[in-house]
Fold each of these.
Amino acid sequence: MLKELRAMMHQDIESILYDQAAIQQVTAKLGKQVTADYQGKNPLVICVLKGAVLFMADLVRQIDTHLEMDFMDVSSYGNSTVSSGEVKIVKDVNTQIAGRDVLIVEDIVDTGRTLHYLVDLFKYRQAKSVKICTLLDKPATRVVPVQVDYAGFKVPDAFLVGYGLDYAERYRNLPYIGILKSAVYQLKQ
Ligand SMILES: O=P(O)(O)OC[C@H]1O[C@H](OP(=O)(O)OP(=O)(O)O)[C@H](O)[C@@H]1O
Ligand code: HPA
């Protein structure tokens, strides 16, 4: 049954950009960089739900320092492939931000609106430092500037799904990252 469902999801994929091995390799590289930069700092690593949950789970296992984890759920795409332009907090973090070295973990930076909003928010809450680690960076579609400190892959201007990334809540459980066929969403928007 699982295999059949996977096969059906796979039919909606134009091409695979990064398979499990490539994701693992780049995550290990990012984990090493973060480890080197946060020695002795006990960073607060904040996962931006829902998309970043798989990356977060793999990344923290590659970070070799003490750290704390928290989760924030923000949303701006709904069931669309286009940002609504409005970032909504669905669930806030539970941890006090003041004085903390915050590392935001994201699956993708696209227009930049989500990260711009979160960086401003954590600075306003008086974080000691705020950095961004994203698996995917899509610079061609940036609308607001964002300083990305750690990026896994620079990706083309296409709608991507898999490994946490969704279209209308689907495809998050694909083990790879691929380009979604435009036919899947063109009729629905
Ligand atoms: O740079 P931006 O244009 O702001 O896009 C990036 C954001 O969009 C996606 O989240 P989404 O709002 O779809 O919520 P989700 O993580 O629950 O899928 C993604 O996970 C990022 O958080
Ligand atoms: O390419 C994307 N795919 C899925 N979610 C996204 N949120 C911003 N860009 C994307």
Amino acid sequence: MAAATDIGIDLGTASILVYAKGKGIVLKEPSVVAYDKDSDKVKAIGEEARQMIGRTPGNIMAIRPLRQGVISDYVITEKMLRYFIQKSMGRRGFRKPRIVICVPSGVTDVERRAVEEATYQAGAREVTIVEEPIAAAIGAGIDITKPCGNMIVDIGGGTTDIAVISLGGIVVSSSIRIAGDNFNEAIIRYVRKNHGLFIGEQTAEAVKIKIGTAYQQPELMTMDIKGRNVVTGLPKTVTLTSEEIREALVDTVSQIVEAVHSVLEKTPPELAADVSERGIVLTGGGALLDGLEEVISERTGINTMTAENPASVVALGTGEYVEIMADFERR
Ligand SMILES: Nc1ncnc2c1ncn2[C@@H]1O[C@H](COP(=O)(O)OP(=O)(O)OP(=O)(O)O)[C@@H](O)[C@H]1O
């Protein structure tokens, strides 16, 4: 019988979540590390490191060791994992945990092994790798062990994973490196081009959360933002509207929608029929962008809904994965 998981980790580009058996989600922090170039030392990890972004002296760099959902900086990732594992194990930390950790679907074997190795190095006794869409589906409450098609669209910070799942496995999938962070970049570009204003990532994120939308809304929302005038270099304030942000996001949103559409086109007919009956489920923090459900429903003709607490479902699913699969294999 497979061992039950001690902890499940959603190792995301934007954030890392840890699920502990019997406790639920015990940790949620940004996947950022503050690193001192001069002394070659890690200064802070997680929330503390995030506070340093854009405010660090020259010798301290705030780095996101995971770009697009896979490991780009192996050594730092391992340090970050070790810190979070210890933090979430608390006083039980004297025993090495069994860990289920997820990777985006479609990662290469080399990338998969890098995640596995980093997790062992960070102090795991046993490591199970699970693909993100499977974890997302479990976390969203879908019974993945039935011979029935379910479509999950997991929109994270760096990647969007689209998958049709049946009988515990992925039947068709696609992973595109376009997700929530690209919405921020699109907002930064738009504001520079149309308002002559430089804004940072944190401002763009705040705009996206407050007035960002993918769908035309009956009521216009506005937000004042501060930035630096492109020409004079001086501080300047402008007012943005939700309609402007919708325009700014159109291209990025449509790349996600088209990817969903093309996965549907490749789905075997019986499973496609299941999906159209059961609907498409959105997960991941990026799914919180207002109006995404409407745009996807309109383009595919399939009812689309967002999971409850979409940013937490992958972590929840990794925690439950081992037991569900063990039950399934025993049947
Ligand atoms: N209310 C919100 N509205 C729109 N976007 C949001 C909201 N809250 C969070 N996000 C976005 O969700 C994204 C992060 O999602 P999530 O935490 O699921 O990603 P991740 O798992 O770290 O990334 P990945 O799966 O790509 O590795 C970020 O781009 C963030 O800006």
Amino acid sequence: MRTLIKGATILTMRSEEPFIGDILIEGDRIADIQPSISTQADTVINGEGMAAMPGLINAHQHTPMSLLRAFSDDLRLMEWLDKKMLPAEAQMTPEDIYWGAKLAMAEMIKSGTTAFADMYIHMNEIAAAVEETGMRASLTRGLVFLENDGGRRMTEALDLIQRWSGKAEGRITTMLGPHSPYTVPPQPFRELIALAEQENIPLHTHLAETKEEVVKIRETYNQTPAEYLFHLGMFEKAHVLLAHSVHLNRRDIGYLKGMRGGVSHNPVSNLKLGCGIAPVKDMIEQGITTGLGTDGAGSATTLDMFEEIRAASWLQKLDYGDPTKLPAFDALSMATTGSAALLNIAHETGTLEAGKKADIILIHLKKPHLQPVHNLLSLLAYSANGADVDTTIINGKIVMQGRQLLTIDEEELMKQVSIRSKRIVEGI
Ligand SMILES: N[C@@H](CCSC[C@H]1O[C@@H](n2cnc3c(=O)[nH]cnc32)[C@H](O)[C@@H]1O)C(=O)O
Ligand SMILES: [Zn+2]
């Protein structure tokens, strides 16, 4: 299969300079990018008036929580989790998880996201949805060790890794997921780190999301959350994906320096839950890889990565009282090359270049809020939103064109979501 995109304004994210040109896709990879390519193709896409850029990568998600969107807002994180989210999750059947994940994937594809990192339960169902929708994903079974059935969760985590790593034409990868410093005690945490190092499996966890977490870890271990992970040996060998990392002091940032992996900043979720502003600029200055994520739709409400790009940039400007901080290209880099590195797939995705996987989005520029095109980087970072994405290509396959989803039956999806979402929250 050869697909040719003609005459698009191409932003490769390898360089800051857009240019008008053509992109040739062969199978699942980009074969060539040039100002002009004349060749035969099975499908030709007219890219005129469109920007072509790498698909956005959502580095921290809980996809089935899309079924809990707008169910419970305006609460503190711990109360929201304990009183609303966990009871609702306990009501979710594997089929609910499948449809919730599919709802999230429909929204992601429609807003230009081509890959994501997910941490949840019933991962078989999420993996099946990834296989069908055509998305790229890094899947993690979230592990909490507060009750007695930690063993069952661990079996599920290992089963996911064995069954799904490298599956769906290589689109699925997996991680091990100790949920957070406040839900995993030192001994199981150490065992997970040892296993990750032994088997070369990346780790995905939450870190220092709220002030309450900082207080709790201080009371329990007389450490900061970052110190807790550092002394467990978390940042020595394994690739680690840290979500949030809002409350880090200078010394904490030092602990992360030189780590494999990095931090998924989730600015909209942090804003809405009143968590604080993550020290993104300081982390970048220390060479720590930073990417962007939404967190679940239960907290962030939408999965639109353009909102995250904008919020990330504007929060750093506000925090420093300095509009030169985190300029457009840097914020766009977080959502592409940064997140790709966090998912450990930077060799395959994150930029448009020959040889890489064809994960490409086309954004309609002929719209009042996207004209004139003085500076494409500014428009994409500060003005575009998910609904401006016209075409989404993942692994060389067109999964949305003209805003029509090609791998998901939207009508059936809406029907399932309506019935299931009501049943889940009954009595909570
Ligand atoms: N609770 C699961 C294991 C964790 S999966 C990932 C978990 O992260 C939770 N979660 C969602 N958003 C956040 C957040 O912002 N901070 C911490 N946890 C979150 C989510 O509700 C889900 O329970 C079990 O019983 O086995
Ligand atoms: Zn989360």
Amino acid sequence: MSENIIELKNLSKTYDDLTVLDNLSLDIKKNEFFTLLGPSGCGKTTILKIIAGFEYADDGKVLFEEKNISNLSPHQRPVNTVFQKYALFPHMNVYENIAFGLKIKKMPKDQIDKKVREMLKLVALEGKENRKVDSLSGGQQQRIAIARALVNEPKVLLLDEPLGALDLKLRQEMQLELKRMQQKLGITFIFVTHDQEEALSMSDTIIVINKGKIQQMGSPQDIYNEPENSFVARFIGESNIFDGIMHEDFKVEFCNTKFDCVDKGFEKNENIEVVIRPEDIKMVEPQHGMLKGIVTSTVFKGVHYEIEVKENDRKWILHNTKNAEVGSQLGMDIYPEDIHIMRKEKN
Ligand SMILES: Nc1ncnc2c1ncn2[C@@H]1O[C@H](COP(=O)(O)OP(=O)(O)OP(=O)(O)O)[C@@H](O)[C@H]1O
């Protein structure tokens, strides 16, 4: 049996003249925390809605455990959705909100009670079951929404920017809690966000989408350390990105300087882009650097200083725990493994 729980096959979707999804295919494994990451309007929610059955693709298929579910209505699909706007029932208390789906299914009362109590425990809301939902904080309401979805024991939980309305601290707490719940329950989470830090800290697998096309799929480490194109590099973290030429395997030139790198498989003298993370640039004495520049500004960021350097007419950003003096000359060194070569952005 396949290790995939959901497979999307060649999905296309157009609204009026706007192509939102363009022949998109992807596989989601059982029990993974899978994140769709991309800028606003790139088609993330549309993918989620097509999996849930709230929208239908113009073309392509949705497979669940190898069965085609493309034509099933939402309630026939073994998935549940948590939205950013929690859509709780304001006139019901916490308990009734969580129990709602099970009552509709006409489950016996004692079983409902057992399951609701399990959920209250899971989302740390024991003791709050009789509270009206609008008397609770945003974070607590979000937990009710999650409990209400999980109580139905879906095989897949779809989460559409579920933490978007929370302030930063609560958001970070809920990120940890969601991850903990997912690991405890062992069910597949498909999570939508436009926040790259959130995606990096929570996911097993991330796909980065732009304009309805997958730009890259991989682990958070792959996506951060080895962006495949400049869209991904720009979208994930801060980067120094320059045009360059891949002269031959392991030899690249950028900023008018030849460097050794660890990449191969490009055409001879192929035009490429290089990405270098700010924390990977070594600060050395000016005479010892492969590149030289002048410090134009420094900002203390807590863990590191953010140092801006002007090298010829190019701007570089460096992160270093040591500060540098504005106006001073600085040498910069980069190890071969820290030079990431990218093909030009996919269109
Ligand atoms: N029902 C609809 N009718 C017309 N256009 C739509 C409809 N639903 C979505 N769109 C358009 O499709 C594009 C993709 O929308 P989608 O909601 O999937 O993006 P998203 O990546 O989830 O963005 P966000 O992060 O802002 O929610 C957007 O340009 C949106 O305006």
